[in-house]
Amino acid sequence: MPRFMTLVRIEENDVPAGGLGPDFEERMGALLEEITKAGVMLDTAGLHPTSDGTRITWTGGKFSQVDGPFTETKEVIGGYSITQCKDKAEAMEWAKRFLEIHPPEFTLTVEVREIAEG
Predict the structure, then answer these.
(1) What are the C-alpha distances in Å from 34 to residues 39, 46, 75?
(2) What gap in Å lies between CA 25 and CA 71, rounded to an integer?
(3) What beta strand segments (E) does the chain contain?
(4) CA 23, CA 103: separation in Å to the nearest integer?
(5) pLDDT by residue (tens digit) across 46-97?
(6) How far apart are CA 25 and CA 118, in angstroms?
(7) What is the pTM of this model?
(8) Torsion over CA of 105, 40, 114 and 93, rounded to 10 degrees?
């Protein structure tokens, strides 16, 4: 079965400082339990803020490095999941369910991509 990586893109400056609340945590926990029991979830995690990150670029045969936060970037990758699904349609259904858990005033995007095998 194919594996898919879902990249969660967020607007880092719009994330509520206190999180999304206990109701959100319960709904997310229930979804993660369901997707794990279905045998689909292989790995998932959120990422630390860009202020803790570093970008390394290779250009012209040289490295350059920029420490976060990356203020010039509006959207950043805030988390990821790796799933094993029968097809892309199933991976997209799980991604939509993940998005639906979030409050309507919260803006985030997921990018679902099949992992190249072999």
Answers:
(1) 9, 18, 28
(2) 28
(3) 3-11, 41-46, 54-59, 62-67, 75-84, 108-114
(4) 10
(5) 999 999 999 999 999 999 999 998 877 788 999 999 999 999 999 999 999 9
(6) 37
(7) 0.87
(8) -40
